[in-house]
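notes to self, project folder thing:

trying the whole complex as one job this time. last attempt i did each chain seperately and stitching them together was a nightmare. three parts in total, labels are on each line so i dont mix them up again. if this works i'll redo the older ones the same way
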Amino acid sequence: MMRRAFIGLLLTLVLVGIAVAAEQRFPPPEFTDGHVLPETLTPSVSPRTMAWVDVALLVVGLGLASWISLRLRSRLALVGLSMASLIYFGFWRQGCVCAIGSVQNVALGVADPSYAVPLVVIGFFALPVIFALIWGRGFCGGVCPHGALQDLVLLRAIKVPRFLDEVLRLGPWLYLSLAVLFAATGGLFLICKFDPFVGIFRMSGSRSMLLIGAGMLVLSMFVGRPYCRYLCPYGALLGACSRVARWRPEVTPTECSRCRLCEDACPYGAIDKGLPVGVSAEPVRAGRKRITLLLVGLPLAMLVFGWLGSRVGIASVAWHPAGELASLLEADAVDASTRPDELVAFFRNDGDRAAAFARAAEVERRATGLGWVIGALFGAVALTKTARAFFPESSPDYVTDRGRCVSCARCYSSCPYELQRRGIPVALPEGGKGE
Amino acid sequence: MKNEPGELKPSLDRRAFVRSAAWGSGVVGLGALAGYALKRTGSGTQTEKPKLGAEFSYDVSRFQTSDPALKRYDELLRYRVGIESARCIAVAEDGVLYVGGDEGIQVVDGEGCELAVIRLARPVQSLAVMGSDRLLVGQKGRILVLGLDGRELESWDDFPEDMLPTSIDVSELAVHVADAANRVVRKLNEAGEGIGVIDGRSGVVEGVGFKVPSPYFCVKTGADGLLRVTNPGAHRVEAYLPDGRLELAWGRASFAIEGFCGCCNPVDFDIFPDGSYVTCEKGLPRVKLYDAHGVFTGVVAGPEDFPEYLAVVNAGAHKAAGAGIQAVIDPAGRILILDAIAQKLRVMVRKESGNE
Amino acid sequence: MSEETKKLSRRDLLCGGARGAGLLGLGAAAGFLGGRESHDDEVWQIDPGKCIQCGLCTTECVLSVSAVKVVHSHGMCGYCQLCTGYFDPNPVSLDEGAENQLCPTGAIEREFVEDPYYEYRILEDLCVGCGKCVKGCNMFGNGSLYLQVKHDLCINCNVCAIATACPSQAFRKVPKDDPYLLRGKGAIG
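result (full assembly):
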């Protein structure tokens, strides 16, 4: 088909060969039979890159997800929405530009004044955060194609042991810290490089990429949303935002009678066990213990992890083009025949050795500073999560965990009050809270 | 003991200890895993780059050396030229060298010391010394006649606007100008008026003119009065009678040392008093010797003598396509080679060993 | 009881404050970053003057067949019978036999125009963007063959994987309306 189009263009082009020749620095041969020189074909950019449509659809999707999870409370509707998102944002737009990766663009934009973040990418970063701050993680449950894919293939969720779960939940924050650090120093976009599912969306990729994607899919069949819970850096951010949301999904539409029917209803471990019937709310003491730990440990944790972060920052320079060039220049032997490509290109373009080393030093300075800041922030987060893990706050009722709930609407149908709301005749549990 | 919700389990120290130990080792393990993953997936981008197979690599390194036994000349001197983008040279009878480039002409003596610089408005494409007092400067669309001090005496403009004189040769019969853009050799008299055109169509292949794919087209008149012209696209040197008929031709296309490499070579040549040739090639920078019948007799400078040139062509640079090698024979019998990529001039002298 | 309601409203206050601060900060960041000159309408392209034909365009593109192909500026071509971008350095004979060709996928088409000129065209369906012919053309010829990103194929990733890996930093962003850096138009080296 391309071939025919090419030949067709060739025949119908009225390009004047002489005009082309006049533009050249040395003219092509003159043909006695009036042969027309073919013009270099320049196909224009594919119309699939209408990114503003994506932003509009993102807003619609987010609104729908929030409305379905909070108001309509229908699992079926949410499944439909997430499948539509999977098809559009996942397979049609091939997962790029995505909100998860947008964190890196924003990080680079904040750190580097010369980098202009595309407006669409800002939109993809900000919109799910705005919705999460007010209405919870509707993005995760109804719009994100990665989440939709994992949701789709979930067969039977294994219950991850609590302490393992707590430890692994530091993963997204670690990933976020590393991704922000690497992106802000101008080096690597880690999230894009290590995204397990984008190879599936594109239906192509390197062998290792596809193998990892397949592996994650298989894992998702037995562990609910492994990427979302233990890796997704954007999920860490959204989780933190949804902790202060004004409205969030509640298991029961009306009141909780602690009947415990919803205890195992969440495959992602996002329902907090309430207190047994007859026990009142947590005393102030546990809260005090938490705050004490935080006040004492925070400076220490931030210092230690800040220092660790600066070490990682220095190491990250090796992945930066400037750092890589500098280390290659240092190791450069005089023999030109075995030079790596970067040095071949550098010397061919009359590179200045001193300037290259200066650039690398500048990158290292910036990376060290950023490492301190990001490391300290990670330390703070790690300590906060530790404090909450050891001294958990517990509400009397069975509620969704403010940070972990991805608004997937799976748990609603386990609550008898919800079934009652839907008009299904069911026996309500005895009594309300306590006696 | 009241079961306080803040401590869901009774305060068993062992339990708490085990939990905190598991917690601690979990955090450490997580960090170690992250670090290990980072290390494995690439210590710098070099190690992890997938390589294409050998059939995808362009490797002409086996041609980029020459047999030392073939060398007939030694390098006496090498120096950087002092004019930007130098591309042509001409030598006068007293051994003074003129080097032409984008900004004008540098005048150098036999040892490489600069004598003068003549600044010109337009880039210089070719040079030739006329008689004992005049310098012909070929530029796009015209030929300037300068005095040896740089004063402009005449300007020969009666040419098509796109004429590109890449070589000028002065003989008793005429001034020959090799016009690469129009692929013809123009014959002029001493006043610069056109007296004829050689288009090469009566050449080796009837009806087919000179094949000049790139701006390298060279003419020189031999002692026998025949005009030698390079036909680079055909990898030949051809000799024409004054009336434009072909008399003889020699040369073949080959990457081997005896042939002319690439798609359009030789780019320049000069003739000894005995009729033998020194030829220059671009792409594989080679300066070679042929006898009067076109039989290869030896090497003046092989590719290994042009390391800067090789570094640029091996790096896939396009400017290699626009930079050649030029050579002239000075009155003392030395060969002067201009390397347009390194912008250096080398003076080569014949070896004493008498290999003929 | 009153302690509980007091605590709830304090929590509400804290959450509300955090929410407000988050929204404000987000808005400020978005406005600040968005205020810079936007490059929404830009796509990736190769600068042929910097490209060293290292072969990574073939292997690094996230698509299974790279979106980078060789293009031919015919106005710069010498139309040589012995094209060093088409032929192996020492061909058996100057014909279109596969053993004489440089291109490992046979993606160059050779057509006789008139004596002594031949035209060479790239077959995009077969080209993988390795740049072997580009090397040959640059080394001996006029440099009329070079690599370019083809925008009917490229999916315009946020960060181009080839651009990241390119050893000579030859990739840059160009306007969507003029997404090619062609040779021979006087602009590029």
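what i see at first glance: Chain C has two domains: 1-38, 42-175.
need to look closer tmrw
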